[in-house]
Specification:
The chain is an alpha+beta fold. It has one domain (about 5-105). Helix content is about 40%, strand content about 20%. It contains 2 helices and 4 strands; from the N terminus they run αββββα. The chain has helices at about 5-20, 80-105, and strands at about 25-35, 35-45, 60-65, 70-75. It has a 4-stranded antiparallel beta sheet with strand order 1-2-3-4, covered by helices on one side. Strand 3 (about 60-65) and strand 4 form a beta hairpin. The model has no long low-confidence stretch (mean pLDDT about 90).
Length: about 110
């Protein structure tokens, strides 16, 4: 099971992979707790010249699941709330599949 600090390290490692491709300073901008883990929003730091934050393509937030230690990079083309919904639905399907398998195994002689 991940702590928020463990999840932060996973996200920072992913951000480090992007750093080699851009000239901006990248960082985690905001973290929100979710029932299953966290969502990490990240992007470029405001530059010193005009105080604007450079826009990046493909910097969708990361979902991190504390239980199964999944790190999921979300798409920028789909609203974040919808992607969280999709992931929660996926977790319910996986739990249902595990329960079904356990029941079947328990019924075997």
């Amino acid at each position: 099971m991940l702590t928020e600090e463990d999840a932060r390290r996973l996200v920072l490692a992913e951000i480090d992979d992007v750093r080699g491709h851009v000239t901006y300073d990248l960082q985690i901008l905001r973290v929100e707790a979710l029932p299953f883990g966290w969502i990490f929003y990240w992007g470029a730091v405001r530059d010193g010249q005009d105080g604007q934050r450079p826009r990046l393509g493909g910097n969708g937030p990361f979902l991190v699941d504390r239980e199964n230690e999944r790190l999921i990079r979300t798409a920028t083309s789909v609203p974040v709330d919808r992607q969280i919904e999709y992931y929660e639905r996926r977790l319910r399907r996986e739990a249902h599949a595990r329960n079904t398998t356990a029941k079947q195994a328990a019924q075997q002689p």
